[in-house]
Specification:
Elements: E1 2-6, H1 10-22, E2 26-30, H2 33-43, E3 47-50, H3 59-70
Parallel strand pairs: 1-2, 1-3
Helix pairs in contact: 2-3
């Protein structure tokens, strides 16, 4: 499974990466919402972990935009 980590800070990223890694899941980390939205189609994640707020938008806005891209 591919997982996308968006805006997840260093302290949490290592914990999330360890948990997902021990289960064999691939991870891609991006710092902000716009770069994550631009990369969504290429990455095709089954799971998205979003920290709120992101540097460039709120998590709710990111989720709304991501859903629109998937439709």
């Amino acid at each position: 499974m591919k997982a996308l980590l968006v805006g997840v800070g260093d302290e949490w990223a290592s914990i999330v990466a360890r948990v997902l890694g021990t289960r064999g899941h691939q991870q891609v980390s991006l710092a902000d919402g716009l770069s994550a939205l631009d990369s969504l189609a290429n990455i095709g994640p089954a799971l998205i972990v979003v920290e709120d707020p992101l540097p460039d938008m709120g998590a709710a806005d990111f989720c709304r935009r991501a859903r629109q891209l998937a439709a």
